[in-house]
Amino acid sequence: MIRAATLLAAGLAFGGAAAQVGGDLKPPHVARVAFEPLEGDGTQIAPGAAFRIAVDVMNAAGADAPAGLTLFGWLRRSDPANLPCTEAAESFFRTGRLPVGAVFLNDPLVAMLTEDDALHLVDPEFSLATANILGAVKLASRPGAVAVDPDLRRLLVPLPEEGRVVAVDTAARQSVLAEGLTRPEAVLPVADGGVIALDAGRLVRRPEGPVPDIEARALVPVPGSSEALALGARAITLFDRDSGAVRLHWDVQASAALPLHGPDGTTGLAAAVGSELLLRYLDAPDAAPLRIPLAAPARALVASRDGRFIFAHDPAGEPVSVVDLARSRLVQSTGAGATAVSEIVAGDSAAYLMLADQSRVGVLDLVSLARSGHAEFREVPLGAARDAALDGAGYLASLWPDSGVIAVHRESRQGYRLQDFAAMGNAPAMSAIPLRGGVPRAIHVLDRSFREGPTGSFRTVTTLPGPGRWELVATTGLGQLSFCAELPVADPGEATPQAGRLLAEQADGALQLRVVDGAGAPLELRGVLTFAALSGVWRDRAPFRSDATGRARAIYELPPGDPVVLTLEAPGAPSFVPLLVEAD
User: Fold this and answer.
1) pTM listed for this prediction
2) Residue 349: partners with Cβ closer than 8 Å, 6 or more residues away
3) 75, 378, 455, 481: which has the highest count of C-beta atoms within 10 A?
């Protein structure tokens, strides 16, 4: 079931009612938010249980939804001392920081699997912080091929030695999805929250459901689709994960395969057979496959995000073949000489090639490839070369929906952020993410962002880290389009005492403060007042004392420039809502 509340984006916190806009003015946009628990039939959200957040932004003055918006959001504990929504949003955009304990709903997380079978979740935006590990879980045994469930924002981890499949969410909580299997080596997510596992060469589904009765040795998901590809020793099968229906079965002995995809979905299959790339299209299933010669035999295939280019290579050596499907031919053979390319990630405008000795990452400009069929092999220095080449992939991953990739140097335990503009020259990486907690063995990127489907309609999935009252803060950063919405939690805990307030009055150009309790009654007290610029580093403290009317016995002069946040601490008094003052 879905609990929904219709809200007006006026930058105020409210509990299920419409925000009020002063005077006769009406807000330009209306936002509707809904919370949907993904387990059970109730409407209450329990700590640790996944739930979906749906935000629909509508144009109050017309039928068309506003286009081009980016929605930022986070969950924070409900507290009368919280900044109001518009001020909380302004603080976020000015400082890039959130309150302690907040759950951010944007940007990707990096999941690092270590040699001692631990899984660490790292926030790449905290790369300069002393502790960027958001959570960690120790796995009971060595995992198989870890997969990402993009819809439920979690990692799927097969444990072959135990016959189990577990899920790890963005808070590093572990749950069992399947057990009693023989030896699950790989796994794919299913729309109902279950999984399809590659178990001892066969496909099984948990909970029980339809799957193709085929032999397989590898599973490949189709990006942005419910389809998947199963690669066997003698055949390739394209099937629908949700229904189990087979779309195409191709009897071919391929060393590697991948789905061909375009703007309208999956269009066919590509298979590496010896020194050829074979293409078979869904609209001509009985036709002979198109054969494209490669520069060398390939054991791995990678497609660009738009599906135009295929990169075929052998991680043990040999050059990389670049095939342009728009031209239906090999357009370039590239590489780093005698050093093998261990893995490739291709994005929107650049392809990244990890060298097996980890000394460098090659970068190819896809725009140049599209225009002329050739791109310079640029090199980004990564670190000291390894004595022994990497024996597998897993050290290069796309940061989608952000641009670029993260490239991990195993020996230095650093993850370097490479951007697409690296294709323009041999520039070093500009930032690095410390990967603490062990020796990296593989990385995966887990996107936790609000995703826009239809224009103005945003969705994400998350969990609450603990009991208590929580609220959603959402903002686009434009005008007054910010709002708060209280979550329907199953365990609200004790009610938080109503906070006091600081009130500002002008007194001959200076600032006169008055303090009242939650009911508006004046308070006579002593405490300490803290001043902090909303941007910049200015900060100051001053003693505070109020009389029987609640007015401060001193007046304060603020430095001109940025807005200043005032906070008051007083022994024996309730907490006070921070006050934002615009300095003249």
Assistant:
1) 0.77
2) 365, 366, 367, 420, 423
3) 481
